Amino acid sequence: MRRLLIIFLALECEGKTALAFFLLAERDPVTDYREEDYRRIVDPSTSTRLLPGTGIEIVHDVKLPEPPEHVLFDFDGTLSLIREGWPDVMVPMMVEVLQATGTDEPPQQLHAMAHAFVMELNGKQTMYQMIRLAEEVSRRGGDPQEPSVYKDEYHRRLMLRIRSRREELRSGRVSPETRLVPGSVALLTALRETGARLYLASGTDEQYVHEEVALLGLDSFCAGRVYGAVEDYRSFSKAVVIERILETHAVRGARLLGFGDGYVEIQNVKAVGGTAVGVASDEQGRSGVPDPWKRERLMGVGADVVVPDFRDFAAILSYFWKVD
After folding, report:
1. Tens of pLDDT along 280-301?
2. DSSP element (H, E) containing 251
3. pTM of this structure
4. Structural domains of the chain, ranges and CATH numbers in brackets
């Protein structure tokens, strides 16, 4: 149940003072989602074309009067592959939590249901998936933990899974290239040489984002411009980062280019008039073939261009930095 906040104001009019009060409903941490849910706005049958000799798929032809000044990247799945396979940690944990409610639903059914909403919310901060888990526990008559408790347990399990990946990078036993979407460093280097300012915004907790950006050797590209989720999840969103970029530098949204494999950053970039590149990365195989689920989802939310990775980075730059 929501609490009501009573605000009293003393108002003066024509020499007389009157007391007025207002009732405000306090935000509910379980149901007041700050970031928007997925909304398909483009027909999946929309015709597209490939740039000759590349895997770059043009969904909407982009003709920029001026080249981009600011370039925003998502992190996990867009650049970093350190957390590849994270649903295989999150979903089984959720099934365990839901089974503990005493539900008679078979594990396979719970797994399918949890996997569906986990992927539906993919791109938002992790907290939103845990909020949904708490709601599902309540629907089954259970007494849910705080979403932050579920998130902490998920992170504990995930860190166990990826500990060796992080250690291999930290020790230098493996090259960062093995844990990056192919072509990432080449693209970032080329973008920096254009004079564009690079930013990174992730739904992963900021502490881990900074650590993993450094492990991958990407910190020099966006020093001081790396943003991640914070404890008060309502105070952070990728939309807030974009607003800050535009306000701080007094630039129009049309000078913003965004790259991401999740729908949130695509929606946010398009909402301010920017250009959005959907990254339909094959995280496990690094095959250069677009992931069909990501591709369809990113096109549906309005991506202008879809790429499987950044092997064709030179063609990406030629396309967006060509001024008519």
Report:
1. 999 999 999 999 999 999 999 9
2. none
3. 0.84
4. 49-81+180-320 (3.40.50.1000), 87-171 (no CATH)
